[in-house]
Amino acid sequence: MTRQRVILHVDMDAFYVSVEIRRRPDLVGKPVVVGGTGPRGVIAAASYEARRYGVRSALPSVTAKRLCPQAVFLPGDHALYASVSADVNRIFTSITPLVEPLSLDEAFLDVSGGLRLHGPGAVIAQTIRRRVWEELQLRCSVGVAPNKFLAKLASVAAKPVASPEGVHDGKGVVEVLPGQELAFLHPLPVQALWGVGPATLERLRGLGVHTVADLAELDEAGLVAAVGAAHGRHLYGLAWGVDDRPVEPDREMKSIGHEETFVSDRHTTEELLRELVRLSDAVAARVREHGGVARTLTLKVRFAGFETITRSITVAGGVSTAHGIVSAVTPLLDAIDPSRGVRLLGVSASNFTSGSQQLSLDDLFEERLDDEHQWLLAEETVDAIRKRFGTTAIGPASAVSDRGLQIVRRGAQQWGPEEVPRG
């Protein structure tokens, strides 16, 4: 007999903003947003009070200010958010080792093996909510279901709701019990399904599909003909609540990257090289934290007219230092003409290998260090200084401006598995 799975999806409520309000209690009940305030700033997170006015993540800051002039804008403190996220994760792992983080503020948990010890899924969900509040003074919403897809939808149904009339508390926990999957799923709008974007939604509406039930009633062959083979089979399975994916606690990071939209366009290679050093410093630090080395490096450039290009290079042996990333990516940058203006620059590392660059005493005393190893030694020293004194304690010389040391912080503008700007 196959054991019934019990999967939780835990989603922190307005995470970035809630962490800020925790240290600024005077902001409780006010519309608060985390994000840049410049002409090209983007909202990373919004409190539910701000969402009443239509302010949401990924919205341009100028639009947010127009929608909600009284909103309090705060800069992001992503080192703090990462630290608090680790505190949340410790609560999760005290209940089950099967925790799959999706981002700083959400995770899947497989609690199937802990029901006898901790109680039914809904009881475990309430325990998590209580502990997150009592230990961290933060709120979260939890979905409970037999699979990841339904648990994710259930957590959305458990969320607080912001409307022009006010902010309404959500249910906190929503459970989809075995046998009730379709009763929960089929009344939902079809865009609730993963993979239904604007183009697919337009095609489906052309077929008379508005709800998940409408989609489930279609012939699978007709759906495949309308949206493509792989996509059609994927959507048809979801419409019937099928999702066999396991919770993967050791899911491999696919890429690590940072990108930045500039307040004013950059027009010279020299300007972009300075920004590349800053971005590479942040990426390299995360690669070292991840372990191993990255063999593929990708440069992303968005011009003033919004044309975006990417260029990649594979490095034999891999790199884990800013010096190595900059050295490899600079030829890609040199081949690009920035004279028409560059509004965004990004760099990412992928294709990770377990190749280690740890240094032995023999390496040190016999002076057998190659160039990358010497830089690794130096940058690991920088890691130690930052760990002790903070991320702004030390950084590349090119990152120093009249505003001080401008370090790239962890935040929404990162590339990684299933990471999107949210809060």
Residue stretches low in confidence (pLDDT < 50, at least 5 long) are 356-370, 409-423
Q: What is the terminal-to-terminal distance?
A: 40 Å
**Helical residues, percent:** 25-40%
Mean pLDDT: 84
Q: What's the shape?
A: globular
Radius of gyration: 24 Å
User: What structural class results from the helix and strand content?
Assistant: alpha+beta
Largest sheet: 5 strands, mixed
Number of helical stretches of at least 4 residues: 16
- Give the number of DSSP strands: 17
- Please list the strands of the largest sheet in the order they lie side by side: 5-6-1-7-10
Describe this structure in words.
The protein is of the alpha+beta class and 423 residues long. It is 39% helix and 22% strand. The chain has 16 helices and 17 strands. It has helices at residues 15-23, 48-51, 61-67, 78-93, 115-118, 121-136, 148-157, 181-185, 198-206, 212-216, 220-227, 229-239, 269-290, 322-334, 361-365, 371-389; strands at residues 7-12, 32-35, 43-46, 72-74, 99-103, 106-110, 140-145, 161-163, 166-168, 173-175, 255-266, 293-303, 308-319, 342-353, 400-401, 404-405, 414-415. The strands form five sheets. The protein has a five-stranded mixed sheet with strand order 5-6-1-7-10. The longest helix has 22 residues, at 269-290. The radius of gyration is 24 Å and the shape is globular. The model is unreliable at 356-370 and 409-423 (pLDDT under 50).
